[in-house]
Amino acid sequence: MNIMDRIRGGLYGTAVGDALGGTTEFMTRAEIRKKYGRLTEMIGEGVWDLEPGEVTDDTMMSLCVAEGILASPEDPMGAIGERFLDWYRSDPKDIGNIIRRALQRYEGDWLEASFVTNRDLGGFSAGNGSLMRCLPAALIYTDRERMETVTRMQSKMTHWDERCSEACVMYNRMAYRLLQGEELGLVLALETAGTPYAEALGGEPDCGPTGYVVDTFRWVLYILNTTQSFVETVQEAANLGGDTDTIGAIAGGLAGVHYGYGSIPEAYAGKILVKERLDELAERVAAYRREAGDR
Ligand SMILES: [Mg+2]
């Protein structure tokens, strides 16, 4: 598999997990079973009344991060932030509470906006909204240190809580290794070793699939560790209940990098409404990496 398959796989994996899980967001596992049996088709609908193949904030904010980095790779905070604000002004259907507050609070300094948001929320800002959009940093930067710095920074722009930036860095270290073709099970074990997340590889998490970043990430790791294909990964997430679209986007992103674009069925990839933007982005990411000295 070449690196382009992995880059495209990561971008499409995020979008497919998002669009499939968007149907079942906020439902319980039992409600999903009752209504759909097992959801396997990309039908839209759900609480956001989606079109089939319509993505939500998870994918749209990932695009903001990706396009912001490519516009200003040396120091992308401003470029990413401009795109966040443009997206916010487009009046998106699905925007998380923490992110909405941070974007409203922004007055020229992202770290201040995020700090004040965290204070306004009484210190409860450890949502999964920065983890869901961080993958592009791992796809774009070949320099590992720079990749980690930008990964953490993009999280801090809206999510002051350290648990968010830590999860983002751990996730993108995994993506960075998978992009090099390392084996999924080993990557999950190595990067979670010595952290509380290692438990998620030992059995089903004892928390709900909520929007709290630690719960979300534990479920993502569990799903990635117990499934054998891209399709199985995103379907597990979509049928889990809770924050299905975000868990699907986060798990789908890594599954896409690992199994590659070729593993994503046309019935999913072909339906994604922003597919032209994803294709163009994949080309630009690959070109940037070539210029930066990747094979
Ligand atoms: Mg969403």
UniProtKB/TrEMBL annotation:
Keywords: Hydrolase, Magnesium, Metal-binding. Binds 2 magnesium ions per subunit. Mg(2+) binds at T56, D57, D58, D243, D245, T246. SUPFAM superfamilies: ADP-ribosylglycohydrolase. Its cofactor is Mg(2+). InterPro entries: ADP-ribosylglycohydrolase, Ribosyl_crysJ1, Ribosyl_crysJ1_sf. GO terms for molecular function: hydrolase activity; metal ion binding. It holds the Pfam family ADP_ribosyl_GH. PANTHER family: ADP-RIBOSYLGLYCOHYDROLASE, ADP-RIBOSYLHYDROLASE ARH3. Belongs to the ADP-ribosylglycohydrolase family. This is ADP-ribosyl-hydrolase. It comes from Paenibacillus mucilaginosus 3016.
